[in-house]
Amino acid sequence: MKLTPRYINRELSWLNFNERVLQEANDPSVPLVERLVFLGIFSNNLDEFYRVRYAFISRLAKMEKEVRDLEEIDFDPVALMKAIQKKVGRLNREFNHIFENIRDKLAVQGIRFLDETKLNREQGDFVLHYFRKTVRQHLFPIMLDRFKNFSNLRDNQIYLLVDLKHKSNPLIENHALIEIPSELPRFLVLPMGADGVHYVLYLDDVIRYCLADVFSMFGYNEFRAYTIKFTRDAELDIDNDISKSFLEVISEGIKARKHGATVRFIYDDRMPKRVLEKIMPKFGLNKRDTREPGGKYHNAKDLMNFPKLGPAALYYEPRPSLDVKRIAEDEIFLDTIRQKDICLHYPYQTFRYIIDLLREASIDPAVRTIKMTIYRTAKDSKVINALINAARNGKEVIVYVELQARFDEELNIRWAARMQEEGIKIIQSTPGLKVHAKLILIRRKENNENVYYGAIGTGNPNESTARTYADEHLLTADRKITSDMNKVFHMLDDRKFFQPEFESLIVSPFSTRSFFMKRIDREIRNAKKGKPAWILIKVNNLVDRRIVDKLYEASVAGVKIDMIVRGICTLIPGVAGMSENIRAVRIVDRFLEHSRIIVFCSGEKPEYYIGSADWMERNFDHRIEVTTPVTDPEIQKDLWRMLQIQIADNVKARLICDEKPNMPMSLKKGAKPVRSQVEYYRYLKDRETP
């Protein structure tokens, strides 16, 4: 008898999520160019997976068994790496098949990919001119034969390895390395010819076509170029030198990460074996390193920025963000919030209101202080520009910038320096304790009293991601909530991480785990007494084993649990005697599902919570996260409507289970198709339409 496992492996579950992204790229109902974008998202996700999770497993595999035992690792890292490689290999083959299918369909729509071997004379002249005027100045070839070791190639950057033959002696081979400049567009659109077709050329092929322009003057007359790419361990090596500021330590760690340990080497599978064997030692590689033969082109993530070409039918239908009728343009925003809580649901509703809130606070003579946490923000951030304007207008502005936000460290360091120059007080990051909470707190003098206004989000106040990330932002003047928010900021500023007394907010690492465990226990007690008992959970990731075990216990007790988990889900739903009362779905569509919403039956009066924390050990125990109750009946109605629509989704939702991790919903004959993101947009639009 086969024993049912208790958990899905975290890494394999993550690959299941990325497989769901690939399904979207393969969906014929998705517009063609949007399908290319999903291929780009899949590739970008996979790069991050190798840089973070695979690198972690690789480090474990190199440990002695005794050390792994001390770390309480309950899996064989070597076997897991093999399982990952097998699954990734299958997904990459599917990726290639899907790309070829999309490419052929785009050709029918008048968009065709060319390579350097298919250019006619006019196209060749255009490419050569573009190369000489735009590309060549960015190229700095390295002659590899001069080096015994050249192992400092950059993470996630693509290079052309050029096999050179000299006309004076064809038996002599030389090799050059050219970094494909990431500052230039990856795709070149050629002038439209008489046939009315848009021809598109990879930047890689622009360079291939013009290799003679680079090397022929040195006597080379034969050139073959193969793409290579290194994926490196993205873990920051934090130096404990107490003489350095944490900002200096992070900066140095970022520089070192670009040349971290190799976790994956991808190469063009057309590369001759003799060339591969010659260059691997130069790059510090051996046969034990993960080598992945690939196609002619790498960094497919650039498909996310494919040129906008062709008819409108190739793209999603425009869906403008909605205005909120309660927020009047001619009224003071803070006065509107004081009257009644507001919850913004973007991108369905416009993110402009968050910028308006900060812009208005920056010029309101009654506003004294603005406090904010920043985890990820836009490169050209209107949010930060509003904070700078507030400081220039004499407001006290205090900002916590998280310098440890993975892959955004450099941007955050630059913004922190810029804000500091403008007189904004920057609260320094604390080593080893990330602040992931999404908070804005405004202090205003009203009738000689301090009145506080707060914004608590499930996602970052970032106008760039707010266009595609589906999140919630609660705007409130509730005294208990804003008082608790102030305590969080005081704690960050004082750097004294003892547990404050919070009246309303649930704050990690102090109370989030215990709070939700107690709420689940209450549902278990109610179920055992025959009372209504259910839980509705919407998170990005569900990994924490203590919580998973508690949910299993609730299922066995008869608590009905519906879960919407976009990414990693290590819980196995629907197993008799363990989780038969748990149903879990994963939704991938036009917008990235990013909000965290929890609803408990709580007898006769359901309790609603939104916040920044996923249900993972790191979010419960090792980060500053903030979850807030939502008590306004109208907002509760909106959240309930969203969750019920998503549970009923039978178009973009997939059932999460162990054997078939992305099982499509069975649409019964005559049943109405429910695509949750479309339905919820329609619900909000109808509600806001007079």
Summed up, what is this model?
The protein is an alpha/beta fold and 690 residues long. 37% of the residues lie in helices and 22% in strands. It starts with 9 loop residues before the first helix and ends with a helix.
Question: What would your notes on this structure say?
Answer:
This protein has 690 residues and is of the alpha/beta class. It folds into 4 domains: 1-109, Methane Monooxygenase Hydroxylase, Chain G, domain 1 (Up-down Bundle); 114-307, polyphosphate kinase like, CATH 3.30.1840; 333-502, Endonuclease, Chain A (2-Layer Sandwich); 507-688, Endonuclease, Chain A, CATH 3.30.870. Helix content is 37%, strand content 22%. The protein is built from 19 helices and 27 strands. Strands 14, 18, 19, 20, 21, 23, 24, 25, 26 and 27 form a 10-stranded mixed sheet that branches. Strands 10, 11, 12, 13, 15, 16, 17 and 22 form an 8-stranded mixed sheet that branches. A 6-stranded mixed sheet has the order 2-4-3-7-8-9. β5 (187-189) and β6 form a beta hairpin. It is globular and about 85 Å long. It starts with 9 loop residues before the first helix and ends with a helix.
